[in-house]
Amino acid sequence: MTTDRIETLLDEQRRFTPPDSFKAQAHVRDTTPYERARRDPEGYWADWAKQLEWSRPWDRVLEWKPPHAKWFLGGKLNASVNCLDRHVRAGRSGRVALIWEGEPAGEVRRITYGELHADVNKFANVLKGLGVRRGDRVAIYLPMVPEVAVAMLACARLGAVHTVVFGGFSAESLRDRINDAGAKILITADGGYRRGAIVPLKQNADDALQNTPSIEHVVVLRRTGQTVAFKTDRDVWWSEVMARAARDCPPEAMDAEDPLYILYTSGTTGKPKGILHTTGGYLTQVYATTKWVFDLKDSDVFWCTADVGWVTGHSYVVYGPLALGVTEVMYEGAPDHPAKDRFWSICANHGVTVFYTAPTAIRAFMKWGAELPARHDLSKLRLLGTVGEPINPEAWMWYQEHIGGKRCPIVDTWWQTETGGIMITPLPGVTVTKPGSTTVPFPGIEALLLDGEGKEVKVGGGYLAIPKPWPGMLRTIWGDDERYREVYWSKWKNMYFPGDGAKRDEDGYFWILGRVDDVLNVAGHRIGTMEVESALVDHAAVAEAAVVGRAHDLKGQALAAFVTLKEGRTAKNAQWKNYATPTEGHRRRPSPRRHDYARGSGSSGEAARSVRVAGDLSASSDTTQIRVMITALPIHQRQIA
User: Are 408 and 381 spatial neighbours (Cβ–Cβ below 8 Å)?
Assistant: First the structure.
């Protein structure tokens, strides 16, 4: 019987030890936390929870009745109190919480913890005046402006459950999420800015609200200033209701297991899944991971580039950093507007020290060229991070050299909407990193690799599994617990299946290979697309690659790759044939070789969407694509001197 393992092809041997200067001041400098968490995981997480403010302590750390977990049973707390009130009471009201930069040039706001606290209290009173009570659902459809954090924290203060919908989603997507959650209030804006254009949020909202019977009121923020439709019996202006609101709103004492938010993620059936996160365990995990993974201190300026429409924005723009009391950057717009060095301008102007972004963005930066970050003073950066998808080794190396100046450790993190917080990651003062590897689970988290029969894979490729509960885990799918059981807990008994393939090397390091839906079967070999894409992106001419399967009479499936070239490179000068022959530093699997090159048409974004969306490829400078049919690939292999 087959063990249904995933082939592991990429062999990356470069290693990077934490610099002595970084390690000397890091929160974690040795492996003691891993040992502590292994000995007593509940006690370990309880120690983290004690660093939060509770109005009533818990009676029991964990109740585990698979597939349902409850953490910190009997404990009561409020997320907004932990993100704001306790810092204000500690005399930190004058500390800057948010440095916000709008997409239009020159728009900068510096908002202190005291100011944010006042706005959250006032907006919580606005929501109360509109009839919002504990347990009600509130939909948020805003651009990346400070008011989105105000709205989220105001909901948390009242015990209302927020569901944030990404501002780039359509009216239909907004409608479906409002209806599934049964939201009572919608918070939106007249519009938002994206690459110099206005995103018509209020118009989209009005279209959605034609079929959302649960919505009673709409709060509208003036952002872009254009004229919008306004129903006086339903809509209210943010500025007007805030001007009348009282400044003090006592927080609700929430049970640790009370819902905090619902966030929708895609589902294979086409119906989005409403991932439900609760208060105590979620806040504990995002607080812990924000502090240790990013090694944040009072002197830092942290920038997570994610939009709050995604879980990364929830955990590492709003709840984690604000619970920790740090200063962070929030940016409204696109990384290439008005120029492709916008991110590096922001880093230099605001003194960013810790920077967390996606591999898709990093590959776009590579394509745009190293001369852009070189124009800016990035010397204050001391730590870099990646999130959202596997990062190929050459993008990791480019990031380390051109953004980190070869001095910054990189934390390559794996987690999901469902996990709530970071699960597998280096600790930057301890972990020896390898380009492309997420390394090992965060202390207190366990992960395994299993084959198709459920047997553990110590070294090699397999299916990622989480065998024990963790504080930030999803509690269910909103309104569909049966789907929760089927999607996440049916593959193995009492183990969470995240849907990702991975490999583990001889050092016990994990290498995420991507969704198992993306694993292809070529002549009986199960090959993850991530490793093939990494080999292609290693080519000096390639900025981005997406690999899919195509029917093959002999092998069942062959590989089809779509690549986007870097600026200044064309199909004619890319020297594909030289790359496709064995050279020093490359090896080839012994099989017949066929390489078919043809000029494509249309934008690279359209090509990627028509095949497999590996990320936002719309930053391409031209419309050139190369379609490559591959039955054997050169797999990158490095040797350490």
Answer: yes
Q: Examine the pLDDT at 414 and tell me if it is beyond 90.
A: yes
- pLDDT digit string (tens) for 206-223? 999 999 999 999 999 999
Average pLDDT of the residues of the chain: 86
Does the pLDDT at position 252 exceed 50?
Answer: yes
> Phi then psi for 551, rounded to 5 degrees?
-65, 140
Burial 398-408 (b: 16+ CB within 10 A, else e): bbbebbbeeeb
Please state which of the four CATH numbers 3.40.50.980, 3.40.50.2000, 3.40.630.30, 3.40.50.1580 is assigned to the domain occupying 79-252. Answer: 3.40.50.980
Q: How far apart are CA 371 and CA 376, in angstroms?
A: 9
* Extents of the domains making up the chain: 79-252, 539-636
Is residue 245 a contact partner of residue 380, using CB atoms and an 8 Å limit? Answer: no
Mapping DSSP onto H, E and C, the string for 306-341 reads: CCCCCHHHHHHHHHHHHHHCCEEEEECCCCCCCCCC
DSSP string, 36-90: HHHH-HHHHHHHHHTTS--SB--SEEEEEETTEEEEEET-EE-HHIIIIIHHHHT
Say yes or no to pLDDT of 2 above 50.
no
Range with lowest mean pLDDT among 25-29, 541-545, 617-621: 617-621
- For residue 70, which of 495, 477, 476 has the smallest C-alpha distance? 476
Q: How confident is the model at residue 540 (pLDDT cuts 50, 70, 90)?
A: confident
pTM of the model: 0.84
* Pairwise CA distance, residues 10 & 228, whole Å: 53
Is the confidence at residue 50, as pLDDT, over 90? yes
Q: Answer for the pair 221, 145: CB distance below 8 angstroms, yes or no.
A: yes
- Tokens 């009673």 belong to which residue? 216
Rounded CA-CA distance 525/6 in Å is 7
Percent of all residues in the chain with a pLDDT value above 70, rounded to a whole number:
83
Q: How far is CA 42 from CA 63, 80, 103, 469, 496, in A?
A: 11, 25, 44, 10, 19
Strands 519-522 and 525-528: antiparallel
Helix (H) or strand (E) holding 386: strand 383-386
- Bond prior to 200 in cis (omega within 30° of 0): no
Residues ≥6 apart with Cβ < 8 Å to 244 = none
For CA atoms 83, 85, 86, 90, the dihedral sign is positive
Contact (CB, 8 A) for 163 and 177: yes
Which percentage of the chain shows pLDDT scores above 90?
A: 76
